[in-house]
Amino acid sequence: MTENEISKLEGTAAFIKKLYPHESPVGIVLGSGIGNLAREIDIEYQVEYSRIPDFPVSTVKGHSGELIFGRMGGKRVVAMAGRFHYYEGYSVDQVVFPVRLMKKLGVKTLLLSNAAGGMNMAFKVGDLMMITDHIGLFTVNPLIGPNDETWGPRFPDMSEPYKKELIRKAKDIAAQNGIVVREGIYAGVTGPSFETRAEYKLLHLAGADAVGMSTVQETIAAAHLGMDVFAMSIITDMGIREEENVITHEEVLEAARQAEPRLTAIFKGLIGVI
Hints:
The protein is built from 6 helices and 9 strands. By secondary structure, the protein is an alpha/beta fold. It has a single domain (3-273), classed as Nucleoside phosphorylase domain (Rossmann fold, 3-Layer(aba) Sandwich), CATH 3.40.50. The longest helix is centred in the last third of the chain and has 25 residues, at 249-273. The chain is globular.
């Protein structure tokens, strides 16, 4: 991070703390079509992104664009109702700006959600997949550039980007609620075009079970900051398929909305045992 980027983060954090002075140990990022999870938060304060200094603004349908503070599962949380993507034209520093801001606001555990295309033939549309690892070679690493050791190491370890203990707890919560969950590897790409059939097959051969246009950069930034990360994908379409159909953003949003109550139950239960 450059000195200018750090200055922006500190200024934005000071602005937020004047509006909401409490630390929030849990951060949540809501993906495409998953904004209704915010209804489960006992909201104490919320602010539109457009009112926050140096904060990007969501441009994608299905991302409402609010920072929400309140309680969920008995703990204080800060939730992004809408994230930012590299394909929107934002720099990688802007994409992960909210994650770094959350660190300044006291977040120690970050919960990420996304809509993803399935490539594992055992999956079906509507499945929930806990991300156990990712392939980030097809995205721009947010740590490129100057490094300030007070924020994190130059070469952070990525052997456990998604905390195994959180995955274990989430599996227990899913079982208690009768929710079927999958586990798999997530491939991050830039988008915004959906992958070709050949690209889906290549990513699957590389070991990925699902693919999406977010999450990886946020996870890398969080790992650099020493946060624990848990991430879950909603499988909203199947990339490897025999049908000659096309994939639309509207279908992705609808599939995400259908699966959202199950994801919400897991997130809410997980927050309660963190």
